[in-house]
Every structure is written in structure tokens, then in C-alpha cells.
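Q: Sequence in, structure out?
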Amino acid sequence: MIYAAIASIGALAASCSTTQNVTDVQALDGEWNIVSVEGKPVVLTDGMDIPVIRFDTADGTISGNLSCNRMMGSFDVKAKPGTLDLSGIGATKMLCPDMTVEDNILSAFGKVKGYEMAPDSTMLLIDAEKAPVITLERPTVPELQGEYTVIAVADYVVGATDETETEPVVLTVDPAQGRFGCTTDCNTLMGKFSSTDIGISFSDIAMTRMACPEAPVQEALVATLPQIKSAGNLANGNIGLYDENGQLMIILDK
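A: Exactly. Output:
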């Protein structure tokens, strides 16, 4: 009986150890950069965004971008810890200069059957044989502080079509005071800025009251800034500001 009890305790300990070693679904929560696919590093060219996937364990939704097109989908947050099915992920259908990265990622998603945290804190999406298919790592989030030149807002490229635009559009962020200011092609914008572990926000936007015949940059910024929820480094060294769906909305140059 003593030997049987010892054996039972050993089996229970092994079972507990195995359970504890399985990565819980909460570890997936949040934003990850896709850094390698099928063992090969993701290589980006100019004009491509860093591919990002976001898991929301509160409602089981997936969002992000594939380097050009946006992705969307869902996953089962109640599935057995360590298991994951990404076969249902969809994407927008924009024609991009280079579709190789996107095609490889979408193909790899179909092979994913689980996930596990690696010792270096990267997240491995694994296949049925436990082999890594996709490697994820938490992004290095740029700290917005100081002055930035606004290159593009939504679909509007600053200075590309407006011949009257002579001065650069400058966004100034002061996180210590929780404020921001931004010049435009007409009035100056100002308001509150906040940065937390879950994202950034521009709110309570006000502006000066000069009358201008046309102000496309001003209109685009007033409409877009309240939508901004996160920031990330772009492949060409610029900074991207994203909405809640992971869509690139504003491009900044330091």
C-alpha cells in the first residue's frame, strides 16, 4: 500500500508538472510581431509593414496585418491550453508589390495546431508534431516623445498633391504633461495624449480658428487622431500609428 501511495503521488506530481508547463491562453493576449515562418526570418522591403498579429483573449478575436493586407479571424479561448487553430483567418485583398511574405504567413497559419512559450520569451506557433511553424515576439514599442514630421495621414500623403503646402506638418508629443500639439496646412491642433501598457490615445482635440479655403491635412488629422490606439516601428525606420484594428493610419518621421 505504501508503494502504491508513493506511485500515486509521483503520478500526480508528474501530472501537475505537465499541466504547469503548458502555456495558458492568456499568454497569447496582445500584440506580436511575426519574425519567422517555417524557420526562415521574415525579410521586408521598402513600403512593407512589419507583420503583426493580435490575440484578444477577452472575446477570442484575431486582428493584425500581413505586411500589406489586414488579417481578421477568431480562435477558441476555451480550447485545451496549448492548442490553437488558425485555419479560419481571413485577409483583405489589396494587390501589394510583394505578396511573398503574406502568402507564406497565410500558408503557415493553416498548419498551426498549438502554441508554446520558448525560453527566450518568444511565442512559438507549432504544428501537430510540435515543430515550430511561426515565431512571434513582442514588439519594441516606440516611446512617443518630442517632435515628429507627419508623412502621411490615412490615405493622404502630406505634401504630395497640395502645392500650397510649404511648411512640414509637425506632431509634438509631451508624455510628461500628457499633451500634444500638431501643425497642419491651416490651424494648429492640440489636446491630451496618454500612453499606457495597453496603448496610446489622442483626445480632447481643439484647434486655433483661422479660416482657410482648403485644409485636407487638418481635416485628415482631426478625423484620424482620435482613432489611434497603438504605435510601432516600421521597416524603413519610420513610426506607424495604428487604429484598434491594426490598420496603419499615420506615418511619422523622427
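The radius of gyration is 23 Å.
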